[in-house]
Amino acid sequence: MLWNILTYFGDSMLILPTGITLALFMLWRADSPATTLIWLITLGISGLAVSISKLLFLAWGIGSSTFNFTGFSGHTTMSATLWPVMLWLISQRFQPDRRRLMIAVGYFIAIMVGISRLALHAHSVSEVLSGLILGSLCSGIFLYTQRSRDMRYFTFTPLVILLILPLSLMSIGKKAPTQQFIEHLATQITGKQPWTRAKLLE
C-alpha cells in the first residue's frame, strides 16, 4: 500500500493537471509571463523525452539488454520535474535557506517515487536513475532560469486553492493509461506486437 501511494506522486493523472495548475498560478503570481511559458516548455520536454524513449523501445526494440533499459521511468522523471518546482512556488515567502530546503524535499519525493517503482518491479535501476537525472535536469534548469524572477508569495487562501487539485486527485487514485496508449501507438506504427522486456533480455 505504501509503495502504491508513493508511486502515485509520479502518475500522469496527478502530474499533468497539477503541472497545468502550476502554470496558471505562475501566470498570476510571477512578474513575467515568460515564467509560465518556460515552465510549460520544461514540463513538455520532460514528458516528450519519456514518451519517445518508450515508443522507441515498444515499436522497434531500441533499448539496452546490458543495462536492462527500455525507456526512462516516467513516474520518476515527471515527479523530479514537478515537485521541486511545486515546492519552490509555494515557498516564496520563506528565506532563501528554507526555500532551498523545500526544493530539496521536492527532489526527495522524486527519489521515493523512484524507489517505489523499483519496489513494485515496474522499472529497472537504470530506468529509474536515468529518469531521476532527466527530471532533475529539467526542473534544475527551470529553477536556475527563475532565480532572479520576482514571484509574489502566496497567502493562505491561494495556497489552499493550489493544493486542492493534487489532494483531490490523490484521494481518487485513478491512474493514467499512458503506457497502454504508447503500446497502442507502437502497434499502429509498426503493425506488430510491442516489444517486451523479456524479449529484450533473451
Overview in brief:
Helices cover 73% and strands 0% of the residues. It has 202 residues and is mostly helical. The chain starts with a helix and ends with a helix.
Could you characterize what this model shows?
By secondary structure, this protein is mainly α. 73% of the residues lie in helices and 0% in strands. The chain is elongated. The two termini are 32 Å apart. Keywords: Membrane, Transmembrane, Transmembrane helix. Residues 18-143 form the Phosphatidic acid phosphatase type 2/haloperoxidase domain. The chain crosses the membrane at residues 6-25, 37-63, 69-89, 101-122, 128-146, 153-172. It comes from Rahnella laticis.
SSE inventory with pairings:
Blueprint: H1 2-8, H2 12-29, H3 34-60, H4 74-90, H5 96-119, H6 125-145, H7 156-172, H8 178-190, H9 197-200
Helix pairs in contact: 1-5, 2-3, 2-4, 2-7, 3-4, 3-6, 3-8, 4-5, 4-6, 5-6
Order of helices and strands: HHHHHHHHH
Radius of gyration: 18 Å
Query: What gross morphology would you assign?
Result: elongated
Question: What's the end-to-end separation, in Å?
Answer: 32 Å
**Average of pLDDT:** 91
Number of β-strand runs:
0
Secondary structure tally, helices: 9
Regions with pLDDT < 50 over 5+ consecutive residues? none
* Strand-pairing-aware structural class: mainly alpha
Give the proportion of residues in helices: over 70%
User: So what's the oligomer here?
Assistant: single chain
* Strand portion: under 5%
Largest sheet: none
